[in-house]
Amino acid sequence: SAVISQKPSRDICQRGTSLTIQCQVDSQVTMMFWYRQQPGQSLTLIATANQGSEATYESGFVIDKFPISRPNLTFSTLTVSNMSPEDSSIYLCSVEDPGLAGGTDTQYFGPGTRLTVL
Amino acid sequence: DQQVKQNSPSLSVQEGRISILNCDYTNSMFDYFLWYKKYPAEGPTFLISISSIKDKNEDGRFTVFLNKSAKHLSLHIVPSQPGDSAVYFCAALARGGGSNYKLTFGKGTLLTVNP
Fold first, then answer.
1. Deepest of A28, A113, B96, B110, by most Cβ within 10 A of its Cβ?
2. Do residue A58 and residue B99 have CB atoms under 8 angstroms apart?
3. Least CB–CB distance from B34: residue in A42, A106, A112
4. What does DSSP say about strands B62-67 and A31-37: parallel, antiparallel, or unpaired?
5. Strand partners of residue A2
6. Chain A within 8 Å of B45 (Cβ-Cβ)?
């Protein structure tokens, strides 16, 4: 499977500010995704990060709040904008590629970024 | 409305015995299912998957069973080891759906294997 890293691993932020989370993969991958896990909840897909074009957002998530970039096949960023305490969550990137051990349809996850908004 | 449900928040078993983790789903469009294991402060690690055309898939100590008519799947770990202690997530995918990359997760079951 791919080695996926995220920066920062955790952060504590003030409300109204923004935080950009980075996701780096050690090999080129077809698909990259961003998920959120709120306290006590399951993982929820925020968006699919598309290389060279705008991300595809799931219902309930908008680009103004969660802008995403994907400049190449190994890197993506997620920004959490104008944060409020409700944004306190673990944010995870995941990747999928036919060349990985699980093949198509299996996603591999990064270690996550634990965000606390005061 | 939770489409993937793991009704047991926690499970405790003795080392060497079988651990059975259960998962139910409501969306009949789901046709691919995955189990992930998550340790604290780490991301979910892929364990095993099963396609809806099968009813069983085995990988070492891990076996996943799928009962499509009951919309139920289970993960069996035999024998259980203390290192298996983690949160286990069930996830489902509707490959033919419009959002065919979207994994839908359950809330997880905390497995504790006692020495």
1. A113
2. yes
3. A106
4. unpaired
5. none
6. yes
pLDDT tens digits, residue range B35-94?
A: 999 998 899 999 999 999 999 999 999 999 999 999 999 999 999 999 999 999 999 998
Contact A76, A96 (CB under 8 A): no
Cα-to-chain-centroid distance, residue B85: 14
- Digit-coded pLDDT (tens) for A8-61: 999 999 999 999 999 999 999 988 999 999 988 899 999 999 888 889 999 999
3-state secondary structure B20-87: EEEEEECCCCCCEEEEEEECCCCCCEEEEEEECCCCEEEECCEEEEEECCCCEEEEEECCCCHHHCEE
Q: Tell me if chain A has a CB within 8 Å of the CB of B43.
A: yes
Please give the Cα distance from B108 to B86 (Å, whole number).
Answer: 10
Three-class DSSP category at B19: strand
User: Rounded distance, CA B71 to CA B24, Å?
Assistant: 6
Which residues on neighbouring strands pair with residue B71, listed in sequence order? none
Distance (Å, rounded) from C-alpha A109 to C-alpha A95? 7
Using CA atoms, how far residue A55 sits from A32, A47, A63, A76, B37, in Å, is 10, 6, 8, 11, 28
